[in-house]
Amino acid sequence: MSATVLTLLSALCALVLGGAAPALAHAGLSGSDPADGAVLNAAPKQVTLTFTESVSFPDGSLRVLSPASDRVNPRPAQHADGRENTARVELPGNLAQGTYTVAWRVVSADGHPISGAFTFSVGKPSETTAVVAKTSPDDTAASRLYGFFRHVAYSGLALLVGATAFALVCWPAASGDRPLRRLVVAGWAALAASTVALLLLRGPYETGGPLSSALDLSLLGRTLTGRPGTALAARLVLLALATVLMRQKPVRLGVRPRLVAAPALALGSALTWAAAEHASAGIQVPLAIPVAVLHLLAMAVWLGGLITLLTALRHRGPDSREIPASAVRRFSSLAFAAVVVLVGTGVYQSWRQVGSWTALSTTSYGRTLVLKVAAVVLVLCVAALSRRWSARLTGEGSPAAIELEQVRVPQTVGAPSAPNEAGTGSGEEATASRATATRIDSEPAAVDASGYRRRLRRTVGVEAAVGAVVLVISTLLTGTQPSRAAGTTAAPAAQEPAVKVVTVPFDMGTANHRGTVQITLAPGHVGENTVEAVVFTPDGGISSVPELRLALTQRDRGIGPLDAKLTNRQGYWATYDLRLPMAGTWNLDVTIRTTDIDQVTVGTTLRVTP
To answer: In sequence order, what are the beta bridge partners of 599?
Structure first.
């Protein structure tokens, strides 16, 4: 492998892991009002969600469900105060007491749907709450098909752009040959069919609806008004223009117009990806979009060109010509330039999306990126072998080829014949001797050329296969939340409970009668908290006691006791403004008075988080 390639790989490994920066594509929930797990004295008038970047929301994307799973928000979501990174729904003022579930599904600025759910309570938590399916936005039939056709679209673009570039730049004489035209048509057909499928699936992909809704014309109309739908429609228009270009005969259109029209259509097609995915959100968007376009086109020229070269190196039919060594040499130079662009743009994109060494092992995006880098290193190693055999095939550094060129020296007609080894002989004998020498000396070179061509075909096949794996990994990366965004979103509720509950048994003053008091602290963090205490009888019923007091102490630090000042709420005791000044383990001392003269104090501990 050349020193240049090693330098590029070193730069990739070093610059992938730059410093921190603001969050990028794939929005995440950063906060909500009411907060997750909050217990409110009065019903809120609205629910507001705040995200790390701008979001859009289809109909029904934000639902507030009662404990009985009935939807209570009468109108769809809107942006709060004109801020594009918020979603707000209004609520009626007569919400009953209990726990409500907020289920949301929005589309981030880079075109990917995200979803989640949280709860809040009015008055006190209820025993039953709405059940929301905890499935990933990508765990639907529509989303899985959408991911498949996204890969088909990448593959079609690579074949269309790569085969066209190979025909126009590396082998113009064969641009009208049937095998090359078949590759171009196959790439166009794959890209066109996948784009139509993506346009139909975009609606159910965003809303999480059934696959049958792909044929809903009203949903398709809403899709076309969004940025991803507009980009897909523009791609179809560009493909229609490409059809006109492909139908023209090379002699009719001319080489120069084709060299202008083909790159323009390729740039426009690549822009339909960059303008609607990761590059379109986050920092440095004006720079990120052209970098993404260059990265995508370099991938297409390299991978699509490899497939075209592999097709040309195989045994060809009687209506096809054998690829000349000059075409192989031109593609070798073109492929190397594409690799340089790939590595350079990949360095920038990786820095923009990852941002730290830790993210490579702690996030899905980072781990997938490491796998992609390993595959790229492998394909570059194979590419080095391909360049070696292509150099031998084109005569660069091949002794046999040089010897063949020296033997095939043109002779001037009528020139005196050179003497043979005995110093005698006619001109005809000398000419025959030279022809024999030419034939004998050329045989090793012909054998070497055939062997180099066979080895080149093998390494190009391996290079194309590993390149296809890189393309699959790249498709996965486009649907994975970037590491920077993953590191700034709100922590999932499953990592830290929204409420903290402890149950303490106590003696009720009667033989064999032991009751329990259940204490609920929400959210269980430093700052303002809600405390609710319920006393249960031995048979599980709720017991009404004359008095219940709660004191919180951190004995090792000399803090407290803090009186929670619980008040009787007709069946349970509660306070809604207990402020805890410090995280750590707190001792809870609960005093329960069961009669006018009997009371008992029991204790337990509870950990408060920052």
So the answer is: 593
Tokens of 502: 């402890």
Question: Among residues 484, 486, 400, 385, which one has the least CA distance to residue 449?
Answer: 400
**Orientation angle between helical segments 285-313 and 255-274, nearest 10 degrees:** 130
Instruction: Write the DSSP symbol of residue 311.
Output: H
pTM: 0.62
Residue 34 to residue 125: CA distance in whole angstroms: 14
* Beta-strand pair 559-563/86-90: unpaired
Task: Measure the CA–CA gap between 292 and 477, rounded to whole angstroms.
Answer: 13
**One-letter identity of residue 595:** T
Position 196: which residue type? V
Structure tokens at 529: 């908290």
Tell me if 467 sits within 8 A of 306, measured CB to CB: yes
Task: Count how many Cα atoms sit within 13 Å of the Cα of residue 65 in the half-sphere of its side chain.
Answer: 21
For residue 317, give the DSSP letter.
-
Task: Provide the token pair at 555.
Answer: 């004995």
Angle value at C-alpha 383, between 291 and 336, nearest 5 degrees: 45
Examine residue 561 and say whether the peptide bond preceding it is cis (omega within 30 degrees of 0). Answer: yes
* CA separation for the pair 161, 59 (Å, rounded): 38
Q: What is the DSSP string of 10-21?
A: HHHHHHTT----
Rounded CA separation 414/79 (Å):
92
Q: Are 441 and 407 in contact (CB under 8 A)?
A: yes
Residue 361, classified by CB atoms within 10 Å of its CB into exposed (0-12), middle (13-18) or buried (19+), is exposed
**Mean pLDDT of each 10-residue bin along the chain, 610 residues long:** 38 35 53 85 89 80 86 87 88 86 84 84 77 62 89 92 91 81 92 95 86 89 89 94 74 56 88 84 82 92 89 66 82 87 83 70 75 80 72 54 38 40 43 43 48 72 77 71 52 48 78 77 81 82 83 80 84 81 84 81 83
Q: Which residue has the tokens 């219940």?
A: 548
Spatial separation of the C-alpha atoms in residues 160 and 166, rounded to whole Å: 10
Mind giving me the DSSP string for 104-140? EEEEETTS-EEEEEEEEEESS--S---------TT-S
Residue with tokens 């970037």: 482
Three-state DSSP state, 559: strand
Measure the CA–CA gap between 178 and 359, rounded to whole angstroms. Answer: 48
Peptide bond into 482 cis (omega under 30): no
Residues forming beta bridges with residue 56, ordered by sequence position: 107
What per-residue string of b and e applies to 67-100 under the rule 16 or more CB within 10 Å gives b? beeeebbeeebeebeeeebbbbbbbeeebeebbb
